[in-house]
Write a structure and sequence with these properties.
single chain; 154 residues; mainly beta; six-stranded antiparallel beta sheet; three-stranded antiparallel beta sheet; 2 helices; 13 strands; 9% helix
């Protein structure tokens, strides 16, 4: 089964279906900060240590798989993994969306750029909601002790 293709001009791998056997991950990072982004926008971020300094939650055995991660609630399209960045694209009801994720050199952060385009003649009013689920550092404790994390988060 074909899941995508290489775009030689852009130096990207373009994933054309979300039905890959497992999440296909792109690793984004700089000196201290790293993000892993899958073809379905799942993944997580961490500072220096993926186990002990996890920033966002990722449940490896969750159902459905690859549910947490980098989310804006808009989805219908392709994923492009490039060298040091990922672009998620989609279109619905005449509105196209492109989310670009990357980690800049020299900064411990992830930057996300969301571009929306109305491809119709109708005036549209859109609401966009971002989503992040924090891990509170220790990935092992986060996946096994929800009550402590709930209390800490409050």
């Amino acid at each position: 089964m074909k899941f995508g293709h290489f775009d030689d001009a852009r130096k990207e791998y373009v994933i054309t279906t979300p039905r890959t056997p497992l999440p296909w991950i792109n690793y984004l990072g700089s000196e201290d900060f790293f993000s892993l982004v899958s073809n379905t926008a799942g993944g997580y971020s961490f500072y220096r240590d993926a186990k002990l300094l996890r920033l966002t939650r990722y449940r490896y055995n969750s159902a459905p798989a690859d549910g947490e991660g980098h989310r804006f609630y808009i989805r219908d399209g392709a994923c492009r993994h490039g060298l040091g960045y990922t672009i998620l694209e989609g279109e619905k009801n005449g509105v196209s969306a492109a989310q670009e994720l990357f980690v800049p050199t020299g900064d411990a952060c992830e930057l996300d750029r969301l571009t929306l385009k109305n491809k119709t003649d109708a005036v549209k009013e859109l609401d966009v909601f971002s989503y992040v689920e924090f891990c509170l550092w220790d990935a092992i404790d986060d996946s096994s002790n929800f009550q402590r994390n709930f209390s800490t988060g409050e």
